[in-house]
Design a protein that fits this description.
By secondary structure, this protein is α+β, with helices and mostly antiparallel strands. It has two domains: 10-96, Response regulator (Rossmann fold, 3-Layer(aba) Sandwich); 104-194, Winged helix-like DNA-binding domain superfamily/Winged helix DNA-binding domain (Arc Repressor Mutant, subunit A, Orthogonal Bundle), CATH 1.10.10. The protein has seven helices and eleven strands. The protein is elongated and about 70 Å long. The mean pLDDT is 87.
């Protein structure tokens, strides 16, 4: 069987996705507070199979839904047996959670990008160098002085908040909730730690 959660609005759906993990979502195109297709832009979209329901049944509209990122499209009215069959087919196609985890934090030096929980993120050269340094030393507490020496190349260490600034910018890009980070952590009085 399946555990299902039902919500009425796009806002509620986004809040649920922010807090919990799901394997699939059945989304109505027209919701009280906006287009259900907006859910396709959610940061957790790459770990979620999405089936769109809609009264828009023309070929053009079906193509639009699929082009915008839906994994499947079912026009109304529909049979619940068909809905269940399509959901099962989507879940068979979905990548295993373990496989998704393996791709997290893969860093592409040529493209200056990283696969983060928020999706593929393009970084500045400095952000990339900084994050790569920490990823290669995961779970280790690295002092800010050491970061200034090894990442910035300082020999005489200035009084600066440069490290804090880069951390803040990176959190906005790679953390699901930058205010309560789960990966890029500062340890008071000790330094910085990266947790995959």
């Amino acid at each position: 069987g399946y555990a299902c959660v039902w919500v009425k609005t796009l806002r509620d759906a986004k809040q649920r996705l922010d807090k919990e993990e799901y394997d699939a979502a059945v989304v109505d195109w027209n919701l009280p507070d906006g287009e259900g297709l907006a859910l396709l832009k959610h940061p957790k979209r790459n770990a979620l199979m999405v089936l769109v329901l809609s009264s828009k049944a023309s070929v053009t509209e079906r193509v639009e839904g699929l082009t915008r990122g839906a994994d499947d499209y079912l026009p109304k009215p529909f049979s619940f047996h068909e809905l269940e069959a399509r959901l099962l087919a989507l879940l068979r196609r979905a990548p295993a959670k373990e496989e998704l985890k393996k791709t997290l934090w893969l860093m592409d030096e040529r493209m200056l990008s990283v696969e983060a929980p928020t999706g593929k993120v393009e970084l500045t050269p400095l952000e990339f160098k900084f994050l790569k340094y920490l990823v290669e030393r995961k779970d280790m507490i690295i002092s800010k002085d050491r970061l200034l020496r090894d990442v910035w190349g300082f020999t005489l260490l200035p009084k600066t908040r440069t490290v804090d600034y880069v951390i803040t910018q990176l959190r906005k890009r790679i953390e699901m909730d930058p205010e309560t980070p789960g990966h890029l952590l500062t340890v008071r009085g000790a330094g910085v730690k990266f947790i995959p």
